[in-house]
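Researcher: I'm comparing several assemblies side by side, and this is the next one on my list. It has 951 residues spread over three chains. Same procedure as the others: predict the full complex and return the structure.
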Amino acid sequence: MTEPLLSIRNLQVQFRADSGWVTAVDDVSLDVGEGDCVGIVGESGSGKSVTALSILQLHDRGTTRMPSGSIQYRGDDLLRAEGAALRRIRGREIAMIFQDPMSSLNPVLTIADQISETLRRHQGLTGAAARKRVVELLGLVRIPDAPRRADEYPHRLSGGMRQRAMIAMAIACKPRLLIADEPTTALDVTIQAQVLELLRDLRQELRMSVMLISHDLGVIAEFAQRVVVMYAGRIVEQAPVAELFRQPVHPYTIGLISAVPKLDSDAARLTLIPGRIPGPQEDIPGCRFGPRCAWVQACCRDASPSMMSVSDLQSARCPPRVVALGAPHG
Amino acid sequence: MVDQPIVQVRDLCKTFPVKHAGGVSTLHALSGVNFDIKRGETLGLVGESGSGKTTAGRILVGLIPATSGTVNLFGHNITGVDAKAQLAAVRSRLQFVFQDPYASLNPRMRVGTAIAEPLDIAGTYSRKDRNDRVAELLELVGLPRNSIERYPHEFSGGQRQRIVIARALALNPEFVVCDEPVSALDVSMQAQIVNLLLDLQDRLGLSYLFIAHDLAVVRAVSTRIAVMYAGAIVETAPKTQIYLSPQHPYSKALLDAVPRADPAYVRAPVVAGEVPSLLDPPSGCRFHPRCVFVMEQCRQEVPLLKCSGSDRRVACHLFGNGGSNVRETM
Amino acid sequence: MTDVAFTAAAAAPRRSGVLRRLSRHPAFVVGFSIILLLALCAVLAPLISPIDPSAMKVRFRFRPPSSAFWFGTDQFGRDIFTRVLYGARISLLAGFAVCVISGLCSAAIGVIAAQFRKLDGAIMRLMDALMSFPAILLALGIAAALGPRVSSVIIALTVAYIPAGVRIVRAAALTVREMDYVQAAQISGASSLRIVARHILPNCFSPLLVHLTFIFAYAMLAEAALSFLGVGIQPPVASWGNIIAEGRDYATEAWWVMLFPGIAISLAALSLNLLGDALGDLLDPRLKGGA
């Protein structure tokens, strides 16, 4: 088995609040291999975005700390990278796109200016060469009338166009890994479908790994090859996408899949998960999903559960369920 | 008389003047919208951005005046000459649930006071009756009694939405417009609120206009669905029919674009293009630039909403012949 | 029906947080303590120093600070310490009155401007006109016209400081008007008056409050300046400004006459600024949406 491209091990991220340090992400371990497509799914407070931002050290240094864990990328620990080393990786090796393209694009610079900035920094392209590449990139992300659009300001473009422009910026230097944090959440359904199709095609053309973060199980099901489910700061299940939907193990995964309204279901009522998501400062003994779990047992409150393998590729943070399925430990 | 719809909308048009550097343009938000809502039913109004669904919802409760057309609520015409008086007559029978649970409650008002506001405005309730009613409403939406003294910021998004619903029900309305009431909530909370709305409908005999962009949620809630595109209704049908056999090319495209929580699902080719500018809408059928079935007639003539089956109407030249104009059958 | 399970921690209210956070914010604690101290000195002046502030004891002219006269004496032998204490009454009163009256007027005018678009244009042009005069000149003119007394100073400064407050309230009111909860009240049939009183005004309060602490400070400084220039409070009534004015001619021989009232003014202004900063930090983000 080859070395994964990105390897996150036991990551813990804490934020400073009035009452002290609050843990937003706890014991997160996941790998992204070459050409992999990993989907991280979770609701608010799950820590999925916090995890993604940690990879490129995009958190505010004054109020964030990572007391334990490492993020290995091609031999370097990204959490300890600084200065030039970090800047070399950002944009060139690992790129990121965000949910709201309007706040991710500088409103006083044209699209061409913003993409050129990346090209100049990482590839030393200027002038006509940069312009040519910019138009090429805009064509690659399927923006019609690319030469004219390149000189537009962000507010003149629609939401879908802006997101494409963002993607163009991100892939400008052919990064090895693209992190997409809720890239289609703010878009209309039909535009979302277009952008997801674009991302899929780009992934193949550029042989890029993609880490897609979303709260939408449908988007994850369609796009990801492997899925990581997060709840209240922890990973609760990891599995290949087909296995996850066919045989979800963790009670939260089961609940989440059932709670999603289906297009082809005529149920009189939606299945729901009782209770509410705990805030990061709430201290819940044992399993953080315990208070809402239909399968909860005494041992769930006693100790914080750790991830257990259900098979080679699937693992879940729920000892009672894993054991019940008769799967091997470890 | 028994079957007289409680809401009748005919030829509703709404334009907004838009000031810009060159002068003033007109934004055509709604162009000739027609629909009915019967007592006890839920009409799901579905569309993407620019469809006009939110504008239609707000006109129905008198928040925005219509530019032309008629809106009849419980037999009162709120768009006619004495619109204000007519609206005042039916006000207590209407209500509205907003999308953003963080903007729909006054942060400085205690929850009890906020819920009681419609009662206080009506002014005909004694102190005791008012307090009893607030307690009753809290119970109806599943919130604890001590919520009365607390402030909105102490509650989560889902709980705030319950407070908003409780406030909406204060005066026992018969018709409630719900504008994307669950879009801002997590999946697990969406299911809770959707079920709450359905339960309340059963218990209190409410009729809803449910506005949403999420087709799966709309399916769970509605009895009939109307699909809107660029300011006009393109199709209406009983809910299962829309999902099983959509007629309008846009309805088909919309359904195809929705991601399914099923990795095995293979999606049909995504529709190209974007929602047109409402400042300068396309001639004829507004969907024609993106429609794979486009004909010459589509560019020239605006298709009218015509009967195309049992309780089905569609505005498309593909179904042009053989159906009678919807206005004649109403 | 729907099943709503609360975890114990989640059900506990966080409402008392605001006061607790204020007490932990150093700027607030310092600022509030100093101004409170000064206010107490003003109120309890007769108890702290039983001497009559206007009592002239020619024998004790120009005494430097000593155990008998803590702040020294002026050219008439009046005890500066007592005069500063009594001066606090005037200065703090003037500052507070200007703060409160201009606050009320700003709130009213700002909300009217936001609510009635037709009047908005006229009102804001009037405010712009007032703001184009430096506040102190405007106050000078009005005070001179009305005659040199406390009430003229208060009226003059109130008029000078209203426009800034109006801008703040109007901006806040325009934002609040568009909020969903205001629309919800409209749907329920609330009258404009009700919406303004129960929804708009309470939510304009925070930015205005912060602004008013600074107005308090400015007003006190302006009163001192006006009295110093001779168009404010006239001696023998003591105000920090006119004590300084009277000490001007003797600045080199009796530096203490100008120093102590000067320190008092600076302390008061500083503490109010600290208070305003602390309130600004703490008030708004807490109540905007929460969670």
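Model: For your comparison table: Residues 322-330 of chain B have pLDDT under 50 and may be disordered.
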